[in-house]
Amino acid sequence: MVKRTLSEKLAILADAAKYDASCASSGGEKRSSGDGKGLGSSGGAGICHAYAPDGRCISLLKILMTNFCIYDCAYCVNRVSSRVERARFSVDEVVQLTIEFYRRNYIEGLFLSSGIVKSPDDTMSDMVRIARTLRERENFRGYIHLKTIPDAAPELIEDAGKWADRLSVNVELPTEPALQTLAPEKSAQTIRRAMADVRARREASRDKSHTGKRPARFAPAGQSTQMIVGADAASDGQILATASQLYSSYQLGRVYYSAFSPIPDSSKLLPLIRPPLVREHRLYQADWLMRFYEFQPSEIVSDGGMLDLEVDPKTAWALAHREQFPVDVNRAPRETLLRVPGFGAKSVARMLEARRHRTLRYEDLTRLGCVLRHARPFIQLPGWTPRQLDDANLRAQFAPQAEQLSLF
Amino acid sequence: MRTVVVPRIGTVAAWRDHARKLAQQGVPADRVLWRVGGDDAADLFARDAPVPDRSGRALKLARQAIESLETALCHRDPERFARAYDIVLRLSDGTLRWGDRSDPSMHRLLLQEKAVRRDIHKMHAFVRFREVGRPDAPRRAFAAWFEPEHPITEAAAPFFARRFGDMDWIIATPDLTARFEDGALSFSVTETGDRPPPDATEDLWRTYFASIFNPARLMVSAMTSEMPHKYWKNLPEAALIPELIRTAPARARAMQDAAPTIPPPHVDRLRPQRQLPDTEGLTLATLKPAHDACRRCPIGVCATQAVAGEGPPDAALMIVGEQPGDAEDLSGRPFIGPAGQVFDRCAQAAGLDRSAAYVTNAVKHFKFQPRGKRRLHQRPTTDEIAHCRWWLDLERQLLRPKLILALGATAAEALTGSGAGLLKRAGTVEAGPDGVPILLSLHPAHVLRLPDAAARARAEAALTRDLAQARELALR
User: Fold this and answer.
1) Which residues 6+ apart lie within 8 Å of B203 measured at CB?
2) HEC profile for chain B?
3) For the segment A351-369, what is each residue's pLDDT rounded down to a tens digit?
4) Which pLDDT score is estimated for A50?
5) What confidence score (pLDDT) does residue B55 get?
6) Do the beta carbons of residue B168 and residue B139 sit within 8 Å?
7) What is the C-alpha separation between A123 and A168, in angstroms, rounded?
8) Is B49 on the interface with A (CB under 8 A)?
9) Is the pTM value of this prediction over 0.90?
10) Does A48 sit within 8 Å of B267, measured CB to CB?
11) Is B247 an 8 Å CB contact of chain A?
């Protein structure tokens, strides 16, 4: 085989990594290189340094160490049976790319994933070596996210957590049977055990021992996971139920939903579809409702049900529960205000603060950051009386005109 | 009327000094004209201005207010200084509440603060350094040209000093230039608009940008709302965008139209085979993988793993609890959570050596209800207990204990067929179906659920008594 240049490898191994949606670089440990001895800082809000025309932010150098893989996951471009071009970075190549990109302010750090070569342990130990080299040799204080390999040995995970800010394992598919069919070498149980292990180690790393000694750091920015949407027959209800189980079980920072997207060289098992981008968007909205708006998954969508593609899940809930509206903006408690479409967590906080000093009027709401176009039918306060709650056509105000949303 | 000229460098700090002095002298907001001057910070007050006959005051502001004001003062709006001075006077008087958006000036200031924050954030994101020194120099040197929307260079620069502490860098903007040399940050007025020359790493960056883009999910507006056109001219990767957009639909269609791959024949040899657990010839030591794989009831798919029994294979005493909890589910070991700790405490008080007993649960997987970041324990149903009894019966056959201690209603139901009336039955021995005696007791979690300390102490004493009885009966 002809030796590939760094640029050719980068093209192949970035292309292979783009199906992973995660790009967060926020939270975790506060670090800086203000002392002049190293490179990088982290711990703030996270920065998106560029945006690609797919609308996804580019925050981290997201690459695979190698796209050689012995697994045969039908949805994956890198599966063993695909005839995609293969490449492999050396440890130094990844380190050099990360440092040179970082110095030019292109990125917040590295998100390293990999196909499984030889064995899970071999692959994981090479990934750990990259993270360690960045930290120890290059004094790198930026963000590192490692995708851990569920079957790797516990010592390797321990090491990975020592050097990385965030670890993640992808659950890939929302149900066990789907994973068995489409990713026969993976095991849902092994994946969950890997996540349990990360949670337990993180908790242990935050407990001071009785001698007052601080335990070693372990993935201070937590863990996340990703589910592919639309590759199997799982309903939105199942997807959200799985997500809420994962949040509650493993203290995940995020669950990412990734619309199954066409790949070069597809598998016979899994015909290509248009990526269900609107569905993906609705799932993220529903996820937000669960995490920040105190909704239970069963309130958003029934177990076998699908989210409304035309109307966002909060509005859909309000339309289906009109008897709970209109809400009196000057009296309703926080939980009730949070359920009003067009009211966000921030605007509700501002309302509660303002209410301590005076009675809110309709005209005040825009300045507090509310989207009145959405909120109007569901609220009442001085200056406004809603009249449309009984209107059978209320939904039509929120549903978009028929339009082509996908750009095929 | 007074005219106050604030300098171009150190603008915000100068405004703060002036505002404090003017307030001390009792100068009202409508009597001051604010202007940004050249580099000359000297011309303080116009001399002809008379001091108004009003009592002065010292400004006292909350930290949050100061931070917001100072950020908003980086806005390009020429009225910002006058507005901020008016606001601090009214805040000090108590006639204005910080954050009250019904006040038009306050609303305006908060909006400008937000705009400045965004601009600073975008500067942190979109500055692109180019190497201008030798790559092997002890301190490498980089330079960038950036055009912010507001005069934010001074406010945005400390971020770069914290981030790029081991290199020298210059960020030039049309207004000011920030310099970081040998760890010292300084500012000067920009003299020329020269851009640093491109460096070779930019090509690699463009390769990355083009490759990470997924043509099947083209969403141009999502990109431009976060990376507006006005920033493009100083972003090396932006030149690629029009072509990427133009070719995306055809590239996506080509992927769809291509026929699926027929796997090459050698593929099957490469794929590792996952071993299914063996259900034949199980022993106590090999139960765990079989439990893990069990899907006789639906609890298993949500749990992390099954929790198998633990203890010597010839133990005389078998202790059966209800089901694993959060801690047991994560670690795969029985009785290690809060209830396990109560159990250990009572066992120690009763002189019962836990490691000599076989400790297991009536149900092997954790059943729970997700609630935010926590899992709420849910009682297994009669059906679920019945399904799992298959495993419990197998454990009894393999272990053949002299005595079984059933902790709680679920264990009682699994072992005797009924979990009812346990408060009365606790402490008594019943005969099992295979003749092995079953000592009934309450579950240690019962102790934890009791609200008052006296009741907890009584329940713990009762559990300790039962454990002591179990030890005696098993030894006999």
Assistant:
1) A7
2) CEEEEECCCCHHHHHHHHHHHHHHCCCCHHHEEEEECCCCCCCCECCCCCCCCCCCCCCCCCHHHHHHHHHHCCCCCCCHHHHHHHHHHHHHHCCCCCCCCCCHHHHHHHHHHHHHHHHHHHHHHHCCCEECCCCCCCCCEEEEECCCCCCCHHHHHHHHHHHCCCCEEEEECCCEEEEEECCEEEEEECCCCCCCCCCCHHHHHHHHHHHHCCHHHCCHHHHHHHCCHHHHHHCHHHHHHHHHHHHHHHHHHHHHHCCCECCCCCHHHHCCCCCCCCCCCCCHHHHHHHHHHCCCCHHHHCCCCCCCCECCCCCCEEEEECCCCHHHHHHCCCCCCHHHHHHHHHHHHCCCCHHHCEEEECCCCCCEEEECCEEEECCCCHHHHHHHHHHHHHHHHHHCCCEEEEECHHHHHHHHCCCCCHHHHCCCEEECCCCCEEEEECCHHHHHHCCCHHHHHHHHHHHHHHHHHHHHHHHC
3) 999 999 999 999 999 999 9
4) 97
5) 63
6) yes
7) 15
8) no
9) yes
10) no
11) no
What residues are paired with A380 via a beta bridge?
A328
Interface of A with B in 331-360 (CB under 8 A): 350, 353-354, 357-358
Q: At what angle do helices A91-103 and B201-212 cross, to 10 degrees?
A: 100
Interface test with B, best of A104, A202, A368 (most B CBs within 10 A): A104
Give the three-class secondary structure for A62: strand
- First-to-last alpha carbon distance for chain B, in angstroms, is 103
C-beta separation of A248 from B372 below 8 A: yes
HSE on the CB side for B140, CA within 13 Å? 17
Chain B residues in contact with A347 by the CB 8 A cut-off are none
Chain-centre distance for alpha carbon B93: 41
Q: Do B217 and A275 touch (CB under 8 A)?
A: yes
And the tokens for A131? 């993270």
All structural domains of chain B, each given as residue ranges with its CATH number in brackets, are 2-122 (no CATH), 127-189 (no CATH), 201-252 (no CATH), 284-475 (3.40.470.10)
Report the range of poorest mean pLDDT among A87-101, A266-280, B208-222.
Answer: A266-280
> Do the Cβ atoms of A52 and B244 come within 8 Å?
yes
B250 close to A (CB below 8 A): no
SS3 A265: coil
Give the per-residue pLDDT at B42: 47
pLDDT at residue B41, as a whole number: 47
Interior angle at CA B459, CA B455 and CA B463, nearest 5: 170
**How does pLDDT run across A32-56, given as a tens digit for each residue?**
999 989 999 998 888 999 999 999 9
Residue A408 has pLDDT above 60, yes or no: no
List, in order of start, the domains of chain A with CATH numbers: 6-300 (3.20.20.70), 322-398 (1.10.150)
Q: Inter-chain contact B305–A196, Cβ cutoff 8 Å? A: yes
Q: Do B305 and A7 touch (CB under 8 A)?
A: no
> In chain A, positions 185-224, which contact chain B (CB-CB < 8 Å)?
185, 187-189, 192-193, 195-197, 199-200
Contacts of A276 in chain B (CB under 8 A): none
**Confidence band for A209, pLDDT divided at 50, 70 and 90:** low
Low-confidence ranges of chain B (pLDDT < 70): 38-55, 274-279
Question: Which among B212, B227, B255 is the nearest to A18, CB-wise?
Answer: B212
Q: What is the pLDDT of residue A151?
A: 87
